[in-house]
Input
Amino acid sequence: MKPGVSGRTDGAPARLAVSVPVPPEITRLAFFFALLFASCAEAATPDPLVLEQLERMATAVRTLSYEGTVVYLHENRLETLRVIHRIENGQVQEKLVSLNGPVRTVTRGQDQVTCELSDSHSISIQRQGVAGEVMRSRAIDPEVLSANYLIRPLGATRVAGRKTNVVGIIPRDDLRYGYRFYLDLESGLPLKTDLMGQAAEPVEQIMFTSLDILPLDDEATAPVAAAVGDIQGVPPGEDLAVVPPSCWRFAELPPGFSLVM
Output
Protein backbone atom coordinates (compact mmCIF):
# COMPACT_ATOMS: atom_id res chain seq x y z
CA MET A 1 0.00 0.00 0.00
CA LYS A 2 1.35 3.42 -0.92
CA PRO A 3 1.98 5.99 1.83
CA GLY A 4 -0.80 8.53 2.18
CA VAL A 5 -3.55 6.23 0.88
CA SER A 6 -5.98 4.41 3.16
CA GLY A 7 -6.96 1.01 1.71
CA ARG A 8 -10.29 -0.82 2.12
CA THR A 9 -10.53 -4.62 2.13
CA ASP A 10 -14.30 -4.60 1.40
CA GLY A 11 -13.88 -3.45 -2.19
CA ALA A 12 -14.82 0.18 -1.52
CA PRO A 13 -12.74 2.82 -3.28
CA ALA A 14 -9.61 3.94 -1.51
CA ARG A 15 -9.56 7.47 -0.03
CA LEU A 16 -6.61 9.77 0.00
CA ALA A 17 -5.54 10.90 3.50
CA VAL A 18 -3.85 14.14 2.55
CA SER A 19 -2.90 16.70 5.20
CA VAL A 20 -3.68 20.23 3.93
CA PRO A 21 -2.49 23.26 5.95
CA VAL A 22 -5.34 25.56 7.04
CA PRO A 23 -4.75 29.26 6.33
CA PRO A 24 -4.53 31.32 9.54
CA GLU A 25 -7.33 33.62 8.29
CA ILE A 26 -9.76 30.66 8.26
CA THR A 27 -8.66 29.62 11.74
CA ARG A 28 -9.23 33.12 13.12
CA LEU A 29 -12.64 33.33 11.40
CA ALA A 30 -13.76 30.00 12.83
CA PHE A 31 -12.59 31.08 16.29
CA PHE A 32 -14.51 34.36 15.93
CA PHE A 33 -17.76 32.58 15.04
CA ALA A 34 -17.29 30.15 17.91
CA LEU A 35 -16.98 33.08 20.32
CA LEU A 36 -19.96 34.83 18.70
CA PHE A 37 -22.28 31.83 19.05
CA ALA A 38 -21.09 31.19 22.59
CA SER A 39 -21.71 34.79 23.63
CA CYS A 40 -25.19 34.79 22.05
CA ALA A 41 -26.11 31.60 23.88
CA GLU A 42 -24.95 33.09 27.17
CA ALA A 43 -26.82 36.34 26.47
CA ALA A 44 -30.12 34.46 26.23
CA THR A 45 -30.06 34.53 30.04
CA PRO A 46 -29.21 38.11 31.08
CA ASP A 47 -26.29 38.60 33.42
CA PRO A 48 -27.62 39.32 36.96
CA LEU A 49 -25.22 42.27 37.15
CA VAL A 50 -26.75 43.76 33.98
CA LEU A 51 -30.25 43.31 35.40
CA GLU A 52 -29.14 45.12 38.55
CA GLN A 53 -27.74 47.98 36.45
CA LEU A 54 -31.01 48.36 34.51
CA GLU A 55 -33.04 48.36 37.72
CA ARG A 56 -30.69 50.98 39.18
CA MET A 57 -31.12 53.09 36.04
CA ALA A 58 -34.94 53.04 36.37
CA THR A 59 -34.69 54.13 40.01
CA ALA A 60 -32.17 56.89 39.24
CA VAL A 61 -34.31 58.38 36.46
CA ARG A 62 -37.28 58.67 38.81
CA THR A 63 -35.63 59.76 42.02
CA LEU A 64 -32.59 61.93 41.23
CA SER A 65 -32.52 65.67 40.62
CA TYR A 66 -29.86 66.93 38.23
CA GLU A 67 -28.81 69.68 35.84
CA GLY A 68 -26.69 69.35 32.75
CA THR A 69 -26.10 69.93 29.06
CA VAL A 70 -27.27 67.37 26.51
CA VAL A 71 -26.55 66.96 22.81
CA TYR A 72 -29.18 65.32 20.63
CA LEU A 73 -28.28 63.85 17.21
CA HIS A 74 -31.02 62.79 14.79
CA GLU A 75 -30.98 62.62 10.98
CA ASN A 76 -27.66 64.50 10.89
CA ARG A 77 -29.19 67.34 12.93
CA LEU A 78 -27.38 68.23 16.13
CA GLU A 79 -29.10 70.11 18.93
CA THR A 80 -27.75 71.24 22.29
CA LEU A 81 -30.10 71.50 25.28
CA ARG A 82 -29.82 72.65 28.87
CA VAL A 83 -31.69 70.22 31.12
CA ILE A 84 -32.98 71.03 34.60
CA HIS A 85 -34.64 67.99 36.18
CA ARG A 86 -35.94 68.21 39.74
CA ILE A 87 -38.04 66.06 42.05
CA GLU A 88 -40.25 68.28 44.22
CA ASN A 89 -42.70 66.74 46.67
CA GLY A 90 -42.49 63.49 44.77
CA GLN A 91 -43.35 65.11 41.41
CA VAL A 92 -41.11 65.60 38.39
CA GLN A 93 -40.43 69.15 37.24
CA GLU A 94 -38.31 69.35 34.11
CA LYS A 95 -37.16 72.20 31.89
CA LEU A 96 -35.40 71.97 28.52
CA VAL A 97 -33.80 75.07 26.99
CA SER A 98 -32.48 74.98 23.43
CA LEU A 99 -28.97 76.41 23.21
CA ASN A 100 -28.74 76.54 19.41
CA GLY A 101 -31.15 77.58 16.68
CA PRO A 102 -34.43 79.36 17.53
CA VAL A 103 -35.10 80.09 21.19
CA ARG A 104 -37.26 77.27 22.56
CA THR A 105 -38.07 76.24 26.10
CA VAL A 106 -40.13 73.24 27.16
CA THR A 107 -41.31 72.93 30.77
CA ARG A 108 -42.82 69.64 31.86
CA GLY A 109 -44.82 69.20 35.03
CA GLN A 110 -47.01 66.47 36.42
CA ASP A 111 -50.12 67.46 34.45
CA GLN A 112 -48.98 70.01 31.88
CA VAL A 113 -46.34 70.69 29.23
CA THR A 114 -45.59 74.31 28.29
CA CYS A 115 -43.64 75.30 25.16
CA GLU A 116 -42.22 78.83 24.91
CA LEU A 117 -41.16 79.90 21.42
CA SER A 118 -38.85 82.67 20.24
CA ASP A 119 -41.75 85.09 19.74
CA SER A 120 -42.63 84.76 23.45
CA HIS A 121 -45.74 82.82 22.48
CA SER A 122 -46.50 79.98 24.88
CA ILE A 123 -48.40 76.78 24.18
CA SER A 124 -49.66 74.64 27.05
CA ILE A 125 -50.81 71.04 26.66
CA GLN A 126 -52.71 69.18 29.36
CA ARG A 127 -51.42 65.68 30.06
CA GLN A 128 -54.33 63.35 30.57
CA GLY A 129 -54.93 59.62 30.46
CA VAL A 130 -52.66 57.36 28.47
CA ALA A 131 -51.17 60.19 26.43
CA GLY A 132 -49.71 61.70 29.56
CA GLU A 133 -48.20 58.40 30.65
CA VAL A 134 -46.44 57.82 27.33
CA MET A 135 -44.22 60.81 28.09
CA ARG A 136 -42.85 59.15 31.21
CA SER A 137 -39.71 57.06 31.27
CA ARG A 138 -40.64 53.51 32.10
CA ALA A 139 -38.74 50.74 33.80
CA ILE A 140 -37.28 47.99 31.62
CA ASP A 141 -38.58 44.52 32.43
CA PRO A 142 -35.84 42.08 31.33
CA GLU A 143 -38.16 39.08 31.66
CA VAL A 144 -40.55 40.60 29.13
CA LEU A 145 -37.77 41.74 26.78
CA SER A 146 -35.77 38.51 26.80
CA ALA A 147 -38.21 36.80 24.42
CA ASN A 148 -37.36 39.30 21.66
CA TYR A 149 -34.04 40.83 22.72
CA LEU A 150 -30.60 39.85 23.92
CA ILE A 151 -29.51 41.83 26.98
CA ARG A 152 -25.76 41.88 27.50
CA PRO A 153 -22.90 43.99 28.87
CA LEU A 154 -20.85 45.85 26.26
CA GLY A 155 -17.92 46.98 28.38
CA ALA A 156 -17.09 50.29 30.03
CA THR A 157 -16.17 53.78 28.86
CA ARG A 158 -16.35 57.45 29.88
CA VAL A 159 -19.11 59.96 29.08
CA ALA A 160 -19.02 63.61 30.21
CA GLY A 161 -15.87 62.80 32.18
CA ARG A 162 -17.66 60.10 34.21
CA LYS A 163 -17.15 56.33 34.20
CA THR A 164 -19.99 54.31 32.71
CA ASN A 165 -21.02 50.71 32.14
CA VAL A 166 -22.48 50.02 28.68
CA VAL A 167 -25.54 47.77 28.35
CA GLY A 168 -26.87 46.57 25.00
CA ILE A 169 -30.47 45.59 24.27
CA ILE A 170 -30.16 43.79 20.95
CA PRO A 171 -33.25 42.71 18.93
CA ARG A 172 -33.50 39.09 17.82
CA ASP A 173 -35.27 40.09 14.57
CA ASP A 174 -35.59 43.04 12.20
CA LEU A 175 -38.93 44.27 13.55
CA ARG A 176 -37.60 46.47 16.35
CA TYR A 177 -34.88 48.92 17.29
CA GLY A 178 -31.95 48.14 19.54
CA TYR A 179 -30.53 50.26 22.35
CA ARG A 180 -27.22 51.02 24.01
CA PHE A 181 -27.30 52.57 27.47
CA TYR A 182 -24.19 54.16 29.00
CA LEU A 183 -24.95 54.06 32.72
CA ASP A 184 -23.15 56.32 35.18
CA LEU A 185 -21.13 54.19 37.58
CA GLU A 186 -21.82 56.56 40.48
CA SER A 187 -25.53 57.37 40.09
CA GLY A 188 -26.95 54.86 37.60
CA LEU A 189 -28.26 57.62 35.31
CA PRO A 190 -28.06 56.96 31.55
CA LEU A 191 -25.46 59.49 30.39
CA LYS A 192 -25.79 58.41 26.77
CA THR A 193 -28.48 56.51 24.86
CA ASP A 194 -28.10 55.15 21.33
CA LEU A 195 -31.13 54.05 19.31
CA MET A 196 -29.84 51.39 16.92
CA GLY A 197 -31.19 50.59 13.45
CA GLN A 198 -31.05 47.38 11.42
CA ALA A 199 -27.49 48.02 10.24
CA ALA A 200 -26.30 48.30 13.86
CA GLU A 201 -25.72 51.99 13.26
CA PRO A 202 -27.12 54.69 15.58
CA VAL A 203 -30.36 56.21 14.32
CA GLU A 204 -30.61 58.63 17.23
CA GLN A 205 -28.20 59.58 20.02
CA ILE A 206 -28.64 61.54 23.25
CA MET A 207 -25.58 62.32 25.36
CA PHE A 208 -24.72 64.44 28.38
CA THR A 209 -21.66 66.61 27.94
CA SER A 210 -21.87 67.90 31.52
CA LEU A 211 -23.85 66.76 34.55
CA ASP A 212 -24.37 67.96 38.12
CA ILE A 213 -26.35 65.67 40.41
CA LEU A 214 -28.20 67.68 43.04
CA PRO A 215 -28.44 66.60 46.70
CA LEU A 216 -31.12 64.00 47.33
CA ASP A 217 -34.11 65.19 49.33
CA ASP A 218 -35.58 62.13 51.08
CA GLU A 219 -38.87 63.86 51.83
CA ALA A 220 -39.28 65.06 48.28
CA THR A 221 -38.50 61.71 46.63
CA ALA A 222 -40.27 59.40 49.08
CA PRO A 223 -43.64 59.44 47.27
CA VAL A 224 -41.91 58.55 43.99
CA ALA A 225 -39.95 55.67 45.47
CA ALA A 226 -42.92 54.33 47.39
CA ALA A 227 -45.36 54.29 44.48
CA VAL A 228 -44.62 50.90 42.93
CA GLY A 229 -47.07 51.44 40.10
CA ASP A 230 -45.49 54.77 39.27
CA ILE A 231 -42.02 53.20 39.14
CA GLN A 232 -43.30 50.91 36.41
CA GLY A 233 -44.70 53.90 34.51
CA VAL A 234 -48.33 53.10 35.35
CA PRO A 235 -50.17 54.91 38.15
CA PRO A 236 -51.79 52.60 40.70
CA GLY A 237 -55.23 51.53 39.56
CA GLU A 238 -54.69 52.43 35.89
CA ASP A 239 -54.38 49.70 33.26
CA LEU A 240 -52.63 50.66 30.03
CA ALA A 241 -54.21 47.67 28.28
CA VAL A 242 -57.53 49.55 28.37
CA VAL A 243 -57.32 52.09 25.55
CA PRO A 244 -60.02 54.53 24.40
CA PRO A 245 -62.11 53.49 21.37
CA SER A 246 -60.51 54.42 18.08
CA CYS A 247 -61.06 54.04 14.35
CA TRP A 248 -57.67 52.31 14.15
CA ARG A 249 -57.59 48.52 14.33
CA PHE A 250 -54.48 46.36 14.54
CA ALA A 251 -54.58 42.61 13.96
CA GLU A 252 -51.81 40.09 14.56
CA LEU A 253 -49.30 42.45 16.12
CA PRO A 254 -45.74 41.05 16.16
CA PRO A 255 -44.71 39.39 19.44
CA GLY A 256 -43.81 41.95 22.09
CA PHE A 257 -45.89 44.76 20.54
CA SER A 258 -48.99 46.15 22.25
CA LEU A 259 -51.30 49.10 21.62
CA VAL A 260 -50.91 51.77 24.32
CA MET A 261 -52.30 54.90 22.64
Notes: The radius of gyration is 26 Å. Residues 24-43 form the longest helix (20 residues). Residues 80 and 99 are 5 Å apart (CA to CA).
